[in-house]
Design brief:
The structure is a homodimer. Chain A has 18 helices and no strands. By secondary structure, chain A is an all-alpha fold. Chain A has two domains: 94 residues, no CATH class; 339 residues, Na+/H+ antiporter like fold. The longest helix of chain A is centred in the last third of the chain and has 41 residues. Chain A is globular and about 80 Å long. The first copy, chain A, starts with 13 loop residues before the first helix and ends with a helix. The relative contact order of chain A is 0.13. The N terminus of chain A is likely disordered. At the A-B interface, helix 1, helix 3, helix 6, helix 8 and helix 12 of A face helix 1, helix 3, helix 6, helix 8 and helix 12 of B.
């Protein structure tokens, strides 16, 4: 405080400066003063999230499960259910619940008011990073979904996908309303979460089994891609319903039409845009000449998706599908990868962290209903996808069980539903926890079930062979 | 509102749901409801920032100037000085000043309260992204600074760097205090901003002139690297002074010692850590096996830097220096590049956007003092670096002017000072604008001046040759 009193002449910066320097109490509630502490909190949270994602992912891989499952479970561990390192005000946590905030308070000698403000800002920043993560995840999935390959698999995959969306959605929604007397919107949201199929997990297991190019494998992967497209349309419609809170038939029709038109329209218009995109990227000479135009397109489409009251991820997915058709695809894929590597785990871990699994603790009697609902969702999730195998027609001798089982894992797409459902406020804690448990179990069960289904068919084939030879 | 009234039995989700669905007015002030709109705002802001950075960068390149200059000027154009697309509450803007907020308000029919809350959250999220951008920028600069190469250039570079830090810092700070009666902390901050030298810009121009491996080029690049290290220490010390608001000699000594110990300590400890880092990265098998451990390290170091009341970027820079010494350096460089490509422009553009150049509008008489200060800073910035050429000793025939001129451009490092100065509240608007103008002009002048300086020396050499031959 050497100079504060001595300067009273009209040097323009004294006023604004005095505000920050005069009193330490004033300074801690000041926005500009808090900014570096918010950053400290974000950095520490990211370190925890990255550690959790890597440890969880690697352990998961060691026991031959998909890494995303480990990231999710690690998120549950560091989050509201256990360690309270990564917690969010939306799920009812206050600054005092957060271990990271306690550390910051200790380091910086903060007032309770300052801690609350910093906790709020830090949580919002991490949430935005997680949302950018899911946008980039869907952009990447779009980039990897080859529309031309899809046309070859044709009708079979489309029918399997449609059955795999219709059956679990109807059974889940109707069951929740009629058996459990759930309100319409949460029931529709939970039903929608049952429709997803994870391309990533299924295709990884199929390739391990050497079945990726088999008839069954082709149908499963094709159906999973179509399922993604249908699922994102369903999600956009359902999330929009949750925002208005009304289920109006006209509105539902409008939403389905607008989501479909948005997606198909951007793919069709994209064919023309493609050429200009490549031309622009080729002309640019400064750093980021490919990735920045791609992100401008992806973020603008995501903005449009949000602006027309659908979902940002729908736009990002459409942008991915469009740019997938360009010559720059491979180069773009490579550059998006590290960006996805650092942003996508933030999404998976925070989805896990936001879930409070204690609401499903079976020891507490009040949780019984939530547990029953979780069990119901899991049963519908499995049966609703297994039946899709019997929707295949004109393919004698196909392994119907393998096709159905291949559609079971919800994986990252199911998590997108859970994440957006909780962000939009449509899902309460028990239902959100039930969906997460459903995603974990279906993803967990799919690899062994798929191995079993294909093994059985091989044994049958071998028996048939033996019969023929004998 | 079909079902709200009809359900009164104790289904657990009804209460929380009613909150979001009951009243549209309540819904717009609700955090969970605002979240997608905050995201919409962030996405639109990022689209504007990326467009500005690419257009500015490319135009700059077309007229043979460093792209970072174009990004900065584009930031000024989209920011508080002109278009009001990207504005921030810290610089005194309210939601109504932001064109993006006006668009969001139009799309979503928001109440004034909701707009204010969304503006606040959106600006904080973009600021955190910009801060992550500068952290990654310094991490990348650290990765590119080869400590072994540096040892070869040795004493010459060190002396040039020290003179290039001491002269502008002393002349700037003392001048601001004695001539302009500026308070001590802002004067020190502005003096510190004069010390930076941009490695990137200088080495690019040198390589274009074919002088990167010349004696002059080696000294300039070496001095620029050391200058970075000194500059970051100075910045950490000055920013910490700005936080407490007191200039206490003991505290200054403590800060200089702790910043130096932190940097040198982490480099020394890093030699042991290096091996473990490579071993860990080699063992990991899931996606992001290299980049996630690197980011855990960089963000943890940045957190430490902040936690010990220095700067996050000091930690990130140290992390980059450490990981630069590993075998993974090249692979890591490649993966960090696209991440830097999408995050660093957010920093440069927002630094420009936060500046209000109207405070230096020469038509307004009240701005005269600010303009005089800006002119003073520019003169000190240029002369203070040119004199460094005459600090070179034992190198007969060296082009002293070229060495001095090579140290002039402040570039990205000067912007880091301006950005952190404005975030910490140490710089008021006129001083911040004056620093930005100084950075722009020095960066703008360096390439032509450097060409001139080398051309002159070649002409002299040729004359000498002609004399010898003749």
């Amino acid at each position: 405080m050497i100079f504060i009193e001595s300067i009273t002449n009209s040097v323009p910066w004294v006023n604004s400066l005095a505000l920050t320097l005069n009193s330490p109490l004033l300074a801690t509630t000041n926005e500009a003063e808090n900014a570096p502490i918010v950053l400290t909190g974000v950095l520490l949270t990211l370190v925890v999230i990255y550690l959790a994602s890597k440890i969880g992912g690697e352990l998961s891989r060691l026991v031959d499960l998909p890494p995303v499952l480990g990231e999710l479970v690690a998120g549950v561990l560091v989050g509201a259910s256990a360690l309270h390192l990564v917690v969010f005000p939306e799920s009812g946590a206050v600054a005092g619940d957060s271990v990271i905030m306690t550390i910051l308070q200790f380091i910086n000698n903060l007032t309770p008011d300052a801690v609350t403000a910093i906790f709020q800002s830090q949580s919002e920043a991490v949430s935005v990073l997680a949302e950018l993560g899911v946008i980039i995840l869907l952009f990447e999935i779009g980039l990897e979904s080859d529309l031309k390959e899809l046309q070859k698999v044709g009708y079979q995959a489309t029918i399997v996908a449609c059955v795999g969306v219709a059956v679990p959605f109807t059974a889940g929604t109707v069951g929740l309303i009629s058996i459990f007397h759930a309100p319409v919107i949460p029931a529709i949201f939970a039903g929608a979460a049952l429709t997803a199929t994870s391309i990533g997990i299924t295709s990884k297991v199929l390739s391990e089994l050497g079945q990726l190019k088999s008839r069954e494998g082709q149908i499963i992967v094709g159906a999973a891609v179509i399922d993604d497209i249908l699922g994102i349309i369903v999600l956009a419609v359902v999330a929009s319903l949750a925002k208005t809170g009304e289920v109006d038939v006209l509105n539902v029709i409008y939403l389905i039409v607008s989501a479909t038109v948005f997606l198909i329209g951007s793919i069709l218009l994209g064919k023309y845009f493609n050429q200009s995109f490549v031309a622009i990227a080729n002309k640019l000479q400064t750093r980021g000449n490919l990735i920045i135009p791609a992100f401008i397109f992806a973020f603008f489409m995501a903005f449009l998706g949000n602006a027309i009251h659908l979902e940002a991820i729908l736009g990002a997915f459409a942008a991915g599908l469009v740019l997938d058709e360009t010559d720059k695809r491979k180069e773009l894929d490579e550059q998006v990868k590290p960006i996805a590597d650092i942003l996508v785990p933030i999404f998976f871990v925070t989805v896990g962290a936001k879930v409070d699994l204690s609401v499903l603790n079976p020891v507490v009697p009040g949780n019984r209903e939530g547990l029953i609902i979780a069990t119901f969702l899991i049963v519908v999730a499995i049966i609703g996808k297994i039946v899709t195998g019997w929707a295949v027609f004109g393919q004698p001798g196909i392994n119907r069980l393998a096709v159905g089982v291949g559609m079971i894992p919800r994986g990252e797409v199911g998590l997108v539903f859970a994440g957006i459902g909780s962000a939009s406020g449509a899902l309460d804690k028990p239902l959100q926890a039930a969906i997460i448990i459903m995603v974990i179990l279906t993803t967990f069960l799919a690899p062994p079930l798929l191995r079993f289904a294909f093994k059985q068919s091989e044994e049958i084939k071998e028996l048939e062979k033996a019969d023929l030879l004998g």
